[in-house]
């Protein structure tokens, strides 16, 4: 990889994390009784609006190719959004975000279970130490619905990441994201 590609990737990662942090802060300042589906609907609409400039990357001839898996992934994502809102509304921001970082650990475990990938001794050590760190953060005697919701959000994110491998290879990332948010917007609107 060239230095330009690495720098671009780092910049996109920083921007993505900053946008996620802004979303988390908005959730923290919501009223305790704010409707969760309203937040999910607004997040979907805003994301779709941000994806509109990338419309050229959508393959209109095979727009709904892999539609069943897209539908499943979209609704797993919706469950993750709902869990994230519950976790962020009830837990301290730092605690919730620390638990959300269980997702990469879960991706490693799910890739072994679903695709038969092998873990090295180093990756197994990373999984064990990562889960130990999450237990330290959550203090197992203090496990609540909010902590379980944070783990549910991480599990949803991990499952979505693993299922990307099964989506049509020729679809761009913008296409996959657009379908994901397009498919969950109606159920968010209904609720």
From TrEMBL:
Any one GO cellular component localisation term in the record: membrane
Gene3D superfamilies: 1.10.3730.20
Domain EamA: 8-138
Designated name of the protein: EamA domain-containing protein
Taxon lineage: unclassified sequences, metagenomes, ecological metagenomes
Organism, as annotated: marine sediment metagenome
A Pfam match: EamA
Assigned keywords, A-Z: Membrane, Transmembrane, Transmembrane helix
Transmembrane stretches, start-end: 9-30, 36-55, 76-93, 99-116, 121-138, 144-164
Keyword Cytoplasm attached: no
